[in-house]
Amino acid sequence: xxxxxxxxxxxxxxxxxxxRVRIPERIGKTEITTQERDMLRAxxxxxxxxxxxxxxxxxxxxxxxxxxxxxxxxxxxxxKSPRTAQTQETKGDTSKSQAQGGENAAQxxxxxxxxxWTNEDGSIRPISKWSGVSFTDQQKADYVAGKxxxxxxxxxxxxxxxTMYIKF
Length: 168
Prior knowledge:
Residues 72-127 are annotated as: Disordered. The protein is α+β, with helices and mostly antiparallel strands.
């Protein structure tokens, strides 16, 4: 058996025999159980694993096998502090989050505001301007469709006019 992956940078297909992948028993101070190691060997992700680093910092992440590194990796974009993970779990139970006080309520509000690029159903939220340049109706439709939108005469950080291409 082998692990097969698509390289994130080059889009090339790479593979490695399963026997050449190192799955550690411990990451930082966190023990990886036999069941979790078996899941990783089977090519499955281990979701919402609480990892404690050697310096004592804790975070929740998803683990999976990485062909390029020949080992286990943290899935990009899934790292959360334990406090953030707890507020996400209690989001559905509003009476519970209200009883926990203002700090958790503020954290929950921050979590809800974080993703403003998509609608609740996961579709791309239309935007009407970028860097002070307004979109035409056609550009708005193209952006929502996932196409690249060309914006001309956008002022960059140095104050020069530039052409920008924006794609969701």
